[in-house]
Design a protein that fits this description.
alpha/beta; Aminopeptidase; two-stranded antiparallel sheet
Length: 376
């Protein structure tokens, strides 16, 4: 799609996504006119998919609509070396395989190596041709044998178990920090603060604290430039990161909007979410709100690519609104930034502590972390 589509647009591109919305039940009749009815349908779709609700069909929403058009059985699913297949049909396949105990990794709607391997294992178990493709024969066997188990539960248990066996020591863990370069105020001064410089400063402060504790830290960008989102995701996946932390500040046309929010990978419609990601996001949210006076805008599950496609437990932290004078003033204070860094650092350690070693929110200090076994 060459440009964003919004209310008032007309043409074949509008008709195409309207047809998808009709198939999904958000609209009842075809049209090539992007009117207020279509806009409300787009907003409802974005809300359901865990996307930013704008009513505008941008690149992210267009890709989500494309993925949503496919239902399991619409096409043969297979590993493609040039362009991996994406779609709700892949997510559905992954969910069904996971329910039967086959390991697809994260249910992300991407037909990758793990999904192909799980399909092959399933094909072996039911005696159909083992080719790693989900065609008619494999699909029929899948429909016959799938168990009535809560979707995603084995996957969630596997993620929790993998995390639980990790040492509470932070030394030798790999953490990727992703300081946002985007946003409305990229490279611009808003209430005396530049977003790209602000989040990079916080990222460097967090990096320094973590390096001192023996953590391997990678920043996804330098001070002057930023790779594309897919390149940042590939970086985290290539180093087998233990955690992925995206830092951002928000903005709004309403200057009264303020506060901190955290996000993890989750889609309620499919019952799929990252158990560790949700816990980590919750810990960060609680620690920041306990140590600062930022408004608590809560923790939310989203299906953004940066959360969905990163293999490690991933969170995004929106550290306030630069469009709000109060938040901007707080964020411009170096001591306040240090409070944010301490909150994130303590949340990281709490994520790896057992229940009996954990402490109440807002009570742990950096000096306490060594006694919890940071370097053991």
């Amino acid at each position: 799609m060459s440009k964003d589509l919004t209310r008032g647009d007309r043409g074949d591109a509008v008709a195409l996504f309207v047809n998808i919305l009709i198939r999904l039940g958000f609209l009842s009749k075809p049209t090539d006119n992007f009117d207020n009815v279509v806009e409300e349908a787009v907003k409802a779709f974005q809300q359901e998919r865990g996307l930013k609700v704008t009513g505008v069909v941008d690149q992210v929403s267009a890709r989500a609509l494309e993925e949503a058009r496919y239902k399991l059985g619409d096409r043969v699913l297979a590993l493609n070396s040039t362009a991996l297949m994406h779609g709700d049909d892949v997510s559905n396949l992954q969910s069904r395989l996971v329910e039967m105990g086959f390991n697809c990794g994260k249910i992300d709607g991407v037909y990758g190596l793990l999904t192909e391997s799980a399909v092959k294992e399933f094909q072996k178990s039911v005696g159909v041709a083992v080719d790693g493709k989900c065609g008619p024969g494999t699909l029929i066997a899948l429909m016959r044998l799938v168990k009535t188990v809560s979707g995603g539960a084995p996957s969630a248990l596997r993620e929790s178990t993998k995390h639980a066996v990790r040492s509470p020591a932070l030394a030798n863990k790999i953490i990727v920090i992703d300081p946002s370069w985007g946003g409305e105020f990229k490279g611009e001064v808003a209430n005396g603060v530049i977003e790209s410089e602000l989040v990079f400063d916080i990222a460097q402060r967090l990096e320094g604290r973590l390096l001192a504790l023996g953590v391997t830290v990678l920043l996804t960008r330098s001070a002057k430039n930023s790779p594309l989102e897919n390149q940042r995701i590939e970086l985290a996946n290539s180093v087998n990161a233990d955690l992925f932390i995206a830092l951002k500040v928000d903005s709004s046309v309403n200057t009264k909007a303020n506060g901190v929010a955290t996000y993890y990978y989750g889609r309620d419609i499919q019952g799929v979410h990252s158990v560790v990601g949700e816990r980590f996001a919750t810990l960060i949210q609680r620690e920041i709100c306990a140590r600062t006076d930022l408004l608590n805008c809560r923790t939310h599950g989203k299906s953004w690519d940066i959360l969905r496609l990163t293999k490690a437990p991933a969170v995004r932290i929106d550290l306030g609104y630069l469009s709000n004078p109060g938040d901007a003033k707080r964020l411009s204070d170096p001591q306040f930034r240090d409070s944010l860094v301490e909150a994130i650092l303590v949340a990281i350690q709490r994520l790896y502590l057992s229940a009996e070693d954990d402490a109440k929110t807002g009570t742990l200090r950096l000096s306490d972390l060594r006694r919890a076994g940071l370097r053991n």
